[in-house]
Amino acid sequence: MKIATFNVNGINGRLPILLEWLAARKPDAVILQELKAQQHNFPRAALEAAGYGAIWHGQKSWNGVAILARGSHPVETRRGLPDDPDPTQSRYLEAAVNGILIAGLYLPNGNPRPGPKFEYKMAWFAALHAHAASLLGSGAPVVLAGDFNVMPTENDVYKPERWHEDALFAPEVRAAWFKLVDQGWTDAIRALHPDETIYTFWDYFRNAYTRNAGLRLDHFLLTPDLAKRLTAAEVDRDVRGQPHASDHAPVWIELD
Q1: Which positions in this protein are listed as binding Mg(2+) (predicted)?
Q2: Domains in the chain, ordered, with CATH?
Q3: pLDDT tens track for 107-125
Q4: pLDDT tens-digit map of 199-238
Q5: Residues annotated in the binding site for Mg(2+), as ranges?
Q6: Counting beta carbons within 10 angstroms of the beta carbon of residue 162, is it exposed (0 to 12), middle (13 to 18) or buried (19 or more)?
């Protein structure tokens, strides 16, 4: 089973790229972030024509998450993170797909730091810790994935010395990431590529993609039973290089 996460940075504007990628790679389930579309503007018909059922949680201009399933329809189990400090923001969606519970998220950016946006990020992270613990405790096979807006280690960021004050790489944010992982989750990319420099995001500015000046922001966390079934974890870097592409590339895993 191939499961992917992709921050599309505007689903309607990037729809041709998304559909081309879906046709080429044929993931069984996909988690999308940054739809930047209201609920009624989601391109459901185009995705169904491509063979994907979908559920989505939209918001005007910002945020927005969706879960797609190839040849079936995701069975929604939760919309919104419990105890979200700002539930008006569309950042969390959960569904069952092919016997696996898929939890898709778009964690707040948090910049500028310090300030209200950073406080919201840390509050959201705390709410995620609580819910993730309950997911682990349920005994269900769970994939917790999406754009976490965190670079966990120096191998996940180009020129890390420039980022220590940023909300994506601040010490307390990285500590929150490892507190989450230490509940019992497996970071799929690092499980199979422990020492490689791997990026999933390249800024539009300063020719970042061509220079490979990137960040690893998009992650898969797996419950122990799914970690045992992990056979592949990769980034479709070439998608980022297409004209008018998102600043993120799709990331995917395969489970036996």
Answers
A1: 7, 34, 147, 149, 247-248
A2: 2-255 (3.60.10.10)
A3: 999 999 999 999 999 999 9
A4: 999 999 999 999 999 999 999 999 999 999 999 999 999 9
A5: 7, 34, 147, 149, 247-248
A6: exposed
Confirm whether 203 is a catalytic residue.
no
**Which of 28, 57, 92, 106 is the catalytic position?**
106
Q: Which of 28, 57, 147, 199 is catalytic?
A: 147
Strand blocks (E) in 152-224: 186-187, 201-202, 214-215, 218-222
List binding-site positions.
7, 34, 147, 149, 247-248
Element (DSSP H or E) covering residue 92: strand 92-97
User: Who's near 42: CB < 8 A, 6+ residues apart?
Assistant: 11, 35, 54, 56, 58, 66
Catalytic site residue 92?
A: no
Question: How many residues comprise the chain?
Answer: 256
Is 195 one of the catalytic residues?
A: no
